[in-house]
Amino acid sequence: MSALPTDSLAFALLAAARIDAAVLAGQSLADGLLGRVDALARPAVQDLVYGSLRQYGRGDFLLARLLAKPLDVPEVRTLLLVALYRLETRPDAAHTVVDQAVVAAGELASGRFRGLVNGVLRNFLRQQTQLLAALEKDAVAAAQHPDWWLRRLQAAYPAEWVGIVAAGNGPPPMALRVNRRRSTRDDYQARLQAEGIAALPVDEMGLALARPLPVECLPGFADGLVSVQDPGAQRAAELLDPAPGSRVLDACAAPGGKTAHLLERADLDLLALDLKPARCRRVAENLARLGLQASIATADCARLDTWWDGRPFDAVLADVPCTASGVVRRNPDAKWLRRETDVASFAATQARILDALWRVVRPGGKLLYATCSIFPEENGGQIGNFLAARPDARRDHEEQILPSADHDGFYYCRLEKRA
To answer: Beta 393-401 vs 410-417: how paired, if at all?
Structure first.
């Protein structure tokens, strides 16, 4: 708890510092850390958390040169990281940022680090030119990605890795998917335009917003006219494209965006699975908002004996767990929570899921393997190993979408089961 006014910058800096400290201690933003912040302060805190975590490599480099010795209070260190991010992005308000960071420091460790916070931030302002020149010569600090991550990108994408890194360090775009059962894309785009919201068409039913805005500001969102979904993620339903009436499995369904898109496109006998009850509730809530229906079950999709009734599926979506290396700008904690060994660990889980789900596809049916990763071991390498062991599988379509200013990074491979 804090005695600081929730509308103050000091409160936002302190709340962001505490969340960053929790992340660096191993917690994930997906655990609801931001949900514990006062609703009115949450947008400001979220901006500081996401920005400082995206630039953690940069802030870590600067602190190593501004601190005489390591800090033994993690929240003070993360307060400095958050304040440095704010100083770099709001140089016009430097005096206010330093003042409010010192006020926030008064809430930590009995206030004994207020002088240190003041001194470090003022030293940064005095030495900023020299520090930033040195930073640009450090690969990890300049790229704001772990060194092992950079090595993998450079090996896999020698011509594209710089652009991938730049995309991962920027704010994510915001795109919508119009619910074709309740509106047309042209009608909804006109409705946005009437409310002064600029958007451009993308793919089948997508709209790319000129600038992000809260979902509460989207006309008809609560009534199910539209969903927020990246254009790259919208490719899943378009590629699987089950025929009306098909028996379909969405094996790793939460939070339900791809499930809903499949049901918006056709009437289906669809079963949505996910591992945890809370995640299944999110699927149900999303479908209810959109006026859609599916069977939803809590299960480990790879343990067929716990959920499969023996009836094969015409189409299966296997949106498997992965490193999320293609969506790090939306999940900036992932870059610093992941370890290089996680790539092999995720690949092993993906292989187990893929092997199990292939058994539930009918002969002549199809399975769409999907990740939001750009590491080849989880994508083309995974599929290559699978095909080598499965003579009844044929690669029907494959695409690797690299992150850019317009969309996140995804991999898709559609497999056909030979009759």
So the answer is: antiparallel
- pLDDT, residue 3, reads 82
Give whole-number Cα distances, 156 to 47, 67, 278, 410, in Å.
31, 36, 36, 15
For the entire predicted model, the pTM comes to 0.90
Q: Element (H or E) spanning 281, and its range?
A: helix 277-290
The tens digit of pLDDT for each residue in 245-298 reads 999 999 999 999 999 999 999 999 999 999 999 999 999 999 999 999 999 999
The amino acid at 213: L
**What are the residue numbers of the active site?**
372
Query: Is the torsion defined by CA of 241, 246, 249, 255 positive or negative?
Result: positive
For the chain, give the percent of residues with pLDDT over 70: 100
Q: Say which CATH topology domain 174-229 has.
A: Alpha-Beta Plaits (3.30.70)
What pLDDT, on a 0 to 100 scale, did the predictor assign at position 302?
97
Give whole-number Cα distances, 333 to 29, 195, 411, in Å: 7, 34, 21
| Per-domain residue ranges of the chain | 9-142, 174-229, 231-417
Per DSSP, what are the bridge partners of residue 177?
206, 227
Query: Are 150 and 165 a contacting pair, CB within 8 Å?
Result: yes
- In tens, the pLDDT along 202-220 reads 999 999 999 999 999 999 9
Binned at pLDDT 50, 70 and 90, residue 1 comes out as: low
According to the CATH classification, is domain 9-142 in 1.10.940.10? yes
Rounded Cα–Cα distance for residues 17 and 96 (Å)? 17
* Distance from C-alpha of 251 to C-alpha of 263, rounded to nearest angstrom: 15
Give φ, ψ of 341 to 5 degrees.
-65, -20
Chain-centroid distance, C-alpha 222: 23
DSSP string of 144-209, one letter each residue: TS-HHHHHHHHHH-TTTHHHHHHHHHSPPP-EEEE-TTT--HHHHHHHHHHTT--EEEETTTEEEE
Question: Backbone dihedral region of 364: left (phi > 0), alpha (psi from -120 to 50 degrees) or beta?
Answer: left
Q: Does domain 231-417 have CATH number 1.20.272.10?
A: no
**pLDDT at residue 30 in the model:** 81
The pLDDT tens digits for 53-96 are 999 999 999 999 999 998 889 999 999 999 999 999 999 999 99
- Beta carbons within 10 angstroms of residue 45's beta carbon: 25
